[in-house]
Amino acid sequence: MLALHTHAKVAGRFPAYPLKILDLTEALATTLARTRVAAKLPSGYSVDLGALAMLGFAGVVAETAPGSEPPLPVLHSAGDPAVVDTGDVIQIRSGGSQVRVLFRRRSSSNSLFVTERCNSLCLMCSQPPRETDDNWRIDELKDIVDLIDPTVSTIGITGGEPTLLGHRLAELLSHMHHSLPNTQIHVLTNGRLFADRALVELFEGLQGYVTWGIPVYADVPAVHDYVVQAHGAFFETLEGIYNLAGSRHAIEIRYVLHKQTMARIRQFAEFVSRNMPFSSHVAFMGLEPMGFAKMNRALLWVDPVEYVQDLRFAVNWLDRAGVPTSIFNLPLCILQHDLWRFARKSISDWKRMYLPACERCEVRNQCGGFFRSSGSNWQSLAISPVTTCDRGNS
Amino acid sequence: MGADAEPRARRNEFLPPTAFSDARRYVLLPFRFRHLKSESDYTLVTSETGEFTCVPRDLLVPLVAGQLAPDSPYRLDLEAKSIITSDAGLAITVRRLASQYRARKSFIFEGPSLVLFVVTLRCDHSCHYCQVSRRSEFAPDFDMSEVDALAAVDRLFEMPAKNITVEFQGGEPLLAFERVRQIVLEISRRQASSAKRITFSMATTLHHATPEILEFLKQYDFSVSTSLDGPPEIHDRHRPTPKRDSHARTMAAIDRARLALGACSVSALTTITREALKHPEAIVDSYVAAGFNSIFLRPLSPFGFATRTEGKIGYPMKDFLAFYARALAYMLELNAKDTSISEAYAAILLTHIFTSQSSGYVDLRSPQGAGSGTLVFNYDGGVYPSDEARMLAETGNASLRLGNVHTPFDELMAAPALRLLLEAGIAEIQPGCSDCAYLPYCGADPVATIARTGAPIGHTLSSAHCQRHMGLFDLLFDYLIAGEARTVETLRSWVPSHR
């Protein structure tokens, strides 16, 4: 449940670009330019900062303030010292004291935010779009990518709508392909712009490296277009999916579960199995109460117990059709036991929480828990700790 | 829309659902329909690729006339199942249909993937309905020769399919086990240096399966299919052996085979004779009691000996369908009481109904599967497009013979007989099939038409093939549309998992 920000004190002046945090051993051995590295000092260890400055490091991270005027910038006395950990990539706001964590080595849910712009306006968007020129992000992200451990297994690309960046997105992905060849990249996109085959061609050569996670919210245009608040979006997204699949790109289908989508969950499963049997994964996702979702609660909120039978049908249908299927963002206690094998701990570690009721639960460690943003009016009445006798009954 | 979404976002302004429901004109896509006889009085509509839904019978004409009300609750399903769309959706809907069509017909690109080796015609049974014109156990000259067997394996490795099932049958193939062994060993030897994945199966009474034979079958991961016609009084009546003990020997052999190969590798099928028609429940019960969770209820074949003895043991198709309906109802009843038993042929039809994938079942395809999906290597070295075509030759009409095992594969595929079958074997252009609601799930059977009428295209509706399948599809769709949710769930669960 670590935050991605903390406040800390700064002695000296750090560069504005992203920095890699490494402990001394790793810092001395790394092939990264030392100007991109801040060395993290072990607690209570006395190190000659002058020597580190001569070696060319960008700065150091220490627990406590340096004695006098340090020979290189020192970040210290962080509000939560655990937030800045070795292996992470951080950025220190120029002149300020706020530290942003851009990549966390120990997290399995790192993602790069590429744009705030979007061509849809989903009722439940957790990251409401903003029309702004943020093309600068790509250059910064390429800098960050250089500092990411090549051993990391997956990185997400998210927005906004990444494909609005066009060739600049392709540029970022190619850069990643070169710099992180063993990593799997997951791009979250509404796929609409891929209705133009020319856009698909920009990503030639990235097949197998990138998975395109594309939301489809219904088997019919009226429902999907309403949810994404865009006329013609359903047809564009389907065209995009076929264009991508036709070029052998891997596609994940995402379906967010709420009051506007629940009526056609079963039909949706059949639709996907017939029309997109090539999907590499289908994810049924509980709602994240953020952004527009909070604003549109009256339109969206339904207790998952009301759709869980339909969900079970859909998941089993796709599973039997050979399409790998998962359930995201729903706690185990509201799913029938036979659905547990499809449930993933999908809520990012820094967004996840458990409830007081979870204290007594025996499967808490297997469970993905809840979004920290979900207040009591976003919680199912069916939430209850799972105990051995419950499981015996199911 | 992207352009005005942004200002709306700034104003936190969302449009209502009605702004997105295109309630105006709709466009019809090709579909077929059938009025079902169920009490609910629905009309089944099926898309070109077999997506289906139903509308009340009195809505069919308004649907076709473009007069379905904008708020009709049937519009969404009709649109989801590619029956109707909007002008804007026409292109992508056709693309979806094309994608499904390609998946459903993907078998076309495979070439033959089921290869039958008739290693001998000899058999110790003298079943009244025998399909394969068997010879007595000790008759000479009815086994496949070693040279022909090796040539047949050559043909096998000339086939383009990556996954091939090799099925041994007879006669009783275990009476020629040495030939089976030779073929399996030769295939295994050559498989090592090829990309092919070959699986073995055998149709056998199992009576002659010694421990050594079972060990061999286990080593090569055989699945075996045997004949079990129900309780002893039915089984022994039509499957006579010299000692009249076929049922007892079959049951004992099934147990031995299960022990050796695993229960999942042993299946059985039931040939339904006129006598059996009276006892659907008893036959199903006998399968449950024998530990099977699947039963294949097969009507008499109009081939082989069965044609000649039809007067004695045959029956009209409607009698079979009545029997089948009773058997299926009984099985569904058992399932509702947590006894898991499915009917294997219904499972095939349901797979065709519920999925858009090619099922792999070669006998229910369009274009037809004889020769293009399956090949038969006969004991005498003759190559036939299907078992039925071979039986037709046994009864004097060798017109469907493609060549012999020494004919290169490409030449076999270019044989005039196969060309004839392929030209005739497209259900989409057959009179009687082309406008049938069940067309997407069914197949063409020109071999049977030739056997029946001498010509590859005949009067479809009077054929046993058509009568049988119309009856089975009617029965299944009645359940799917008017049946209880639990029954539908059971039938869906019969569709094999692709996991």
Chart the SSEs and their pairings.
The complex is a heterodimer of chains A (394) and B (499).
Chain A: E1 5-7, E2 9-11, E3 19-23, H1 24-29, E4 37-40, H2 49-55, E5 59-61, E6 74-76, E7 89-92, E8 98-103, E9 111-113, H3 136-147, E10 154-158, H4 167-179, E11 184-188, H5 197-201, E12 210-215, H6 221-228, H7 233-246, E13 250-256, H8 265-275, E14 281-285, H9 292-295, H10 297-300, H11 308-320, E15 325-328, E16 352-353, E17 370-371, H12 388-393
Parallel strand pairs in A: 3-4, 4-5, 5-6, 9-10, 10-11, 11-12, 12-13, 13-14, 14-15
Antiparallel strand pairs in A: 1-8, 2-6, 3-7, 7-8, 16-17
Helix pairs in contact in A: 3-4, 8-11
Chain B: H1 2-10, E1 27-28, E2 31-35, E3 42-47, E4 52-56, H2 60-64, H3 75-80, E5 84-85, H4 90-104, E6 114-118, H5 146-158, E7 163-169, H6 177-191, E8 197-203, H7 211-219, E9 223-227, H8 232-238, H9 246-261, E10 266-272, H10 280-289, E11 294-299, H11 304-308, H12 310-313, H13 317-336, E12 342-343, H14 344-354, E13 374-377, E14 382-384, H15 387-394, E15 403-404, H16 409-413, H17 416-424, H18 446-453, H19 464-482, H20 485-493
Parallel strand pairs in B: 6-7, 6-13, 7-8, 8-9, 9-10, 10-11, 11-12
Antiparallel strand pairs in B: 1-5, 2-3, 3-4, 13-14, 14-15
Protein traits:
heterodimer, A: about 400 residues, alpha/beta, Glucose Oxidase, domain 1, TIM Barrel, eight-stranded mixed beta sheet, seven-stranded parallel beta sheet, 17 strands, B: about 500 residues, ten-stranded mixed beta sheet, three-stranded antiparallel beta sheet, about 40% helix
Structural commentary:
The complex is a heterodimer of chains A (394) and B (499). The longest helix of chain A is centred in the middle third of the chain and has 14 residues, at 233-246. Chain A contains 12 helices and 17 strands. The mean pLDDT of chain A is 92. The two termini of chain A are 31 Å apart. Helices cover 26% and strands 18% of the residues of chain A. Chain A is of the alpha/beta class and 394 residues long. The relative contact order of chain A is 0.09. Chain A has an 8-stranded mixed sheet with strand order 1-8-7-3-4-5-6-2. Chain A has a 7-stranded parallel sheet with strand order 9-10-11-12-13-14-15, with helices on one face. Chain A is globular and about 70 Å long. Chain A has 2 domains: 5-102, Glucose Oxidase, domain 1, CATH 3.50.30.10; 111-350, TIM Barrel. Chain B has 499 residues and is of the alpha/beta class. Among the domains of chain B are: 23-94, no CATH class; 111-285 and 359-412, TIM Barrel (Alpha-Beta Barrel). Chain B has 20 helices and 15 strands. Chain B has helices at residues 2-10, 60-64, 75-80, 90-104, 146-158, 177-191, 211-219, 232-238, 246-261, 280-289, 304-308, 310-313, 317-336, 344-354, 387-394, 409-413, 416-424, 446-453, 464-482, 485-493; strands at 27-28, 31-35, 42-47, 52-56, 84-85, 114-118, 163-169, 197-203, 223-227, 266-272, 294-299, 342-343, 374-377, 382-384, 403-404. A 10-stranded mixed sheet of chain B has the order 12-11-10-9-8-7-6-13-14-15. In chain B, β2 (31-35) and β3 (42-47) form a beta hairpin. Chain A binds chain B through residues 118-121, 123, 128-131, 219-223, 225-226, 229-233, 235, 238-239, 242, 260, 264, 267, 270-271, 273-275, 277, 295-296, 299, 317, 319-322, and chain B through 1-2, 5-6, 8-9, 12, 14-17, 19-22, 49, 51, 76-77, 79-80, 86, 88-89, 91-92, 95-96, 99-100, 103, 354-357, 492, 495, 497-499.
